[in-house]
Amino acid sequence: MRIFDPHIHMTSRTTDDYEAMYAAGVRALVEPAFWLGQPRTSPASFFDYFDSLLGWEPFRAAQHGIAHHCTIALNPKEANDPRCTPVLDELPRYLVKDSVVAVGEIGYDSMTPAEDTALAAQLQLAADHGLPALVHTPHRDKAAGLKRTLDVLRESDLPPDRVVLDHLNETTVGDATDSGCWLGFSIYPDTKMDPERMVRILRVHGTERVLVNSAADWGRSDPLKTRHVGEAMLAAGFSDDDVDQVLWRNPVAFYGQSGRLSLDITDPGVLHEGNSILRGGE
Amino acid sequence: MLTPDPPPDDPWITRLDKALRDRLGDTARTWLDEALTEALNEATSPAPAAPPRWEARFASAGRHCVRREPPHHADPEAAEAARVLILCAARADGATVTRLYEHGTAAERRAVLLALSRLPLSTDGHAGLPLIEDALRTNDTRLVAAAVGPYAARHLDAHAWRHAVLKCLFTGVSVDAVAGLAERSRGDAELARMLGDYARERTSAGRPVPDDLPRVLTLTQLSPLSADAPAGLPNDASAGPSGHASADPSPEEA
Ligand SMILES: [Zn+2]
Predict the structure, then answer these.
(1) Shortest Cα–Cα distance, A268 to chain B (Å)
(2) SS3 content of chain A, % helix, strand, coil (to 5)
(3) Adjacent-strand bridge partners of A182
(4) CB contact, 8 Å: A96 with chain B?
(5) What's the rounded Cα separation, in Å, for the pair B40 and B58?
(6) Residue extents of the structural domains in chain B
(7) What integer pLDDT is reported at residue B51 of this predicted model?
(8) B107-117 as b/e: b if 16+ CB within 10 A
(9) A218 close to B (CB below 8 A)
(10) Where are the beta strands (DSSP E) in B141-184?
């Protein structure tokens, strides 16, 4: 079973997690920029975080045989803090980077005017940079939050097939499907979705345009939840091909729209020998 | 004092340019032409708006310099070579390489580090030193390996250089990456002491000594050639004039 986790916060995870993920079949992941649990108080703190998503974390992942890409954005929660909003002006220089495959996580947290502004501005940045967008749907007042998200999306330049609506559940999957966006489901131990409910949704909605992720982070979460969904699908009678579509081909197709997905893993050790083209120049 | 610009017909750059073009397909070669033209034009008549346009090319090289054969997978070595050529064409100065490094992904940082010795860095020529030092502080072996090139050999003082060698041994970066290894280790009694202590620490913990360690140790035991001492590095005197690397730091015995 080859697995692409399209939403996981590896910054908060250990090398044991990387090992277990590789053993479970994870060969690629996308780490979206998000809130760190501890509020940030200045743009510089974001820049160091973005740099680690573009430098150190891909290095850690490659050591464990996993291809690492990221999404970059000002998250909805911190979009409400005027000390953080100057980050928006600096996003363009990050959005041109090779391993940035989407703008995200954007969306709503408390549905404030500041969140409206940040969401609209960042959807425009995605359109301008030829990138898809990872849109987080709010945990509180989710159904209303999704409606408001869809209104903003309709007014944006970004077509729905370049948007994934994440953290969906039984109450929001219908509206999300009708929107034409990709459907993201986060499988969590206590909150969000669990593998059995995920299988029931897949039975009703099919496997098209569905992304399943662990959204594992610093909270009580499990980076192997993607694998658990694959196993639950097989137990429920889905084929290996169905599992491959949901856990590999769908995320490859969605993030592949960036034109920047690179699923070969370069062993960091190879680069110690020096670049063979540069050596040829000597 | 300004370091003179590299001659436009620097044979190293010419060979690198040819080697890269031989590797790229038509689309990527066209992209490279445009990138180098932009960089060259803005080097001769800088655009009033900063940052210059070629910097976007520098960032996006990885998705353009891909393998010639379908499905056109990424070719990190080609992208790296393209980035080095772009920096050379733009004749990036100290302020530019500093900005690109600080704002760069690991791949962009590597390209800056690898290009440093080919660039006309302004004023005292030390503008790249803080970048080398930054890379040597990381545990990202891709950056460590790129940091210990000719620029480091020329500009790191004796203490920092010894720690760079030790860092390679610690992190598993082959010392083949270290430019000027033989010249700078020669007769360096302090480096010999550090290597011996490290070897003892490993063996007393029942762990293997890195394969490269005895090799560097042997180099330190050669007598120094005074003519080889890198210029302008006063601390080099501390390398010890005698060349008698003390006692028996040989790992087998430790
Ligand atoms: Zn998340």
Answers:
(1) 6
(2) 50, 15, 35
(3) A164
(4) yes
(5) 13
(6) 1-127, 128-243
(7) 76
(8) bbbbbbbbbbb
(9) no
(10) none
The alpha carbon of residue A180 and the mean position of all alpha carbons in its chain are separated, in whole angstroms, by 18
Supply A193's token pair. Answer: 């979705």
Mutate to test the interface with B, among A264, A277, A279, A282 (most CBs of B within 10 A): A277
Q: Is A54 on the interface with B (CB under 8 A)?
A: yes
Q: Is residue A26 part of a domain?
A: yes
Residues in chain A: 282
Pick from B202, B210, B206: which is nearest to B175 by CA?
B210
CB nearest to B78's CB, from A262, A269, A277: A277
Residue carrying structure tokens 């559940």: A169
Decide if A8 is inside a domain. yes
Nearest beta carbon to residue B173 from set A260, A272, A275? A272
What single-letter DSSP state applies at residue A248? I
In the structure, what pLDDT confidence band is assigned to residue B123 with cuts at 50, 70 and 90? low
A278 — phi, psi (to 5°)? -65, -40
> A residues 232-261 near B, CB within 8 Å?
259-260
Domain-embedded: residue A269: no
Gap between the Cα atoms of A257 and A252, Å rounded: 9
d(CA B151, CA B179): 8
Q: Domain count for chain A, please give it.
A: 1
CB of A48 less than 8 A from some CB of B: no
**Among all residues of chain B, which has the CA nearest to that of A97?**
B59
When CB atoms are compared, the residue of B13, B73, B146 closest to A262 is: B73
In a domain, residue A265? The reply is no
Q: Over chain A (282 residues), what is each successive 10-residue block's mean pLDDT?
A: 98 98 98 96 97 97 97 98 97 97 97 97 98 95 94 97 96 96 92 90 97 96 97 98 98 98 81 80 58
Q: Which residue range forms the structural domain that includes residue A226?
A: 3-260
Does ipTM surpass 0.90 in this model? yes
The pLDDT confidence band at residue B226, using thresholds 50, 70 and 90, is low
| Rounded Cα distance, B165 and B163, in Å | 5
Task: State the CATH number of the domain containing residue A169.
Answer: 3.20.20.140
